[in-house]
């Protein structure tokens, strides 16, 4: 399954507006909307010892996203390495499910005063826990949420997108243009990838994927092949995402508190850390007036 058949070498496919639309819509609603739904819906409907509305969003995401990724692979004009795709899908579901549990608890802790712009041990509701081994348990939960869950979720996610991207080339110059529908979807799609990279703290994974895409484009260009409309949509979305990340970093470059939480060479704050640090303080100040 890993080889490209001769008969489908020059096949092309039209822009998959339906799949890209559903993909973008469910990303915004089920992924970005998860924590928002958890916060705005009354606690009486979803008690703290039960799954929140955001958890149900996450469960739906864990089912719908792999299905859409598989449909995307099926529509590729090239025969792609199916075994690698299937293993990636399995890893994706495992990682997203691990993240579901860790993220559920971490976001529910907000109602108890947990502050995402601080580390686990620096949080007021955590640092005085007795016995202190409980703090280790919360750090383990954070590890499963932010590191293991994210790695097993996002690595196969970007790998599948890249595998699909390898089949998005055509020798026909006229097919290397995007329809209006693609241009309309590019903004929401790029903005979501910005959220995914910053909140997931996966800039290195994203930038390596982007560089691999650039290298492949240059390599195929020497063969006289250009990107079709689907490839252009994905490639330009990644370019706009990079611009949005740069703007985000420059805007928060001198934030001393966020700098303390993200001390490494790559400084890319999480949107939810920014929210708990600045927006919560702003709401508190308004309420005190």
UniProtKB/TrEMBL annotation:
Pfam families: CLN6 (PF15156)
Single biological process term from Gene Ontology: lysosome organization
Domain of life: Eukaryota
Keywords of this entry: Membrane, Transmembrane, Transmembrane helix
InterPro entries for this protein: CLN6
Protein's UniProt keywords contain Acetylation: no
Record's GO cellular component terms: endoplasmic reticulum; membrane
Chain ranges passing through the membrane: 56-73, 85-102, 153-172, 202-219, 231-253
Keyword Membrane in annotation: yes
Name of this protein: CLN6 transmembrane ER protein
Source organism of this protein record: Bubo bubo
